[in-house]
Amino acid sequence: METFVVPAWVLILAVFILLLMSAFFAGAETAMMKLNVYRMRALVRKRHGGARRAYRLLQHKDRLLGVILIGNNLVNYSAAVVANVVFVRWFGTELGGVITTVSITFIFLIFADIAPKTIGAVRPESIAYPSAYVLLPLQSIMKYLVSFSNFCGAFVVKPFTRGVVDDEDLTEDELRQVFDQARKLPRNRQLMILNILSLEEQTVGDVMQPREAIYGIDLNESMSEIRQRIAAAGHTRLPAYRSTINDIQGILHMREANRLMQNPDATKEDLIAVLENTYYTPSQVPLSRLVNNFKQRRRRFSIAVDEYGVVVGLITIDDIIEEIVGEFTLSSHETDTGVITPIDDSTYRVTGNTLLHELNNTAHWTLPEDGPRTVNGWVLDHLRRVPSGQTSITIENYRVEIIEIVDNAIKSATITQLPFDDDFGVERQKQEGHGEQSRD
Description:
seven-stranded antiparallel beta sheet, 55% helix
């Protein structure tokens, strides 16, 4: 009886097919693990077939890896056996075994491991989603074998994975990093999203208009003086107090104020009757919480107080919006808390009462905000005295040209951001060695 001998070309074709199958499993494994989970979830919501199947597979990664590894190992060992038959037939037992080991290792390493895994890592969606159509049925067919393999492997894996939680949700820092590096997102949108994430870190005290900038009406004044005060107001709401801002009686909305102004017989009692209740907020409250409070209470305006209940400033929803979207104009920015006028990309002319926080937002600088709040306070804190006249000083990498001083306070100055280079280092050493340079 003749023994049937499989032709060599059939065996070589079988090795080639097994090579392709091994490449499929290797590429699918890497592509599945490299998928962007959040983009995949978006495609699932759009009912993308491959994404939906891949998402189902990734819900149980142990089963998915079980299918891939079992299939890959079966294919690799089968290819080694078939190739060994061919090479033994051609070169004999000893030499054929050596050639099989060397050739199969090299070929499968390049074409069934390195190449497909690299492609899967670079183009995960192109590989993973089509592969899911094959892997999902295979998982159903091999479920008992996979379950048994995972059960046996659990005894080895469990000691190393005890207490580990597979959490794919991004933390706030990770989310900030994602948006900061999102190249396809316009930079202005990136900044807005990053500013929203920063609301938790910033407090009311960082953004509020200081006590000195509060514009209100004193109910102890005469009605004619109050009318003049209202007519000169540039705000939609005014705090109404008696003698001192710490004794606020309520908030006057300009809608009601205009109605009273049209009535020449309106009295102070009529004005008091239309005052809204004052909403107070501790200055250490995070901006994110204040936004929620504004929304729940349907407020747009709050008086900020310190830990002793003393009024330290006020904050509006517009202040918070500017923290998110930035300044609305690039020209001179004038408020009750100072004037900021750009001279060039690195130089701004400011008044002494300009808030460092507003200057940082306008110029995208990093002036310190944990100490003095105004330009005047920042410069005087550095000098430890009131300058005698026009003075040029350097604070860190900023040159301050003091232009005018009134009543022992800086009235106006220009601030220039210096480049971080050797010249700046030399210049700073000169400033530290010689102090300020007066131009009197």
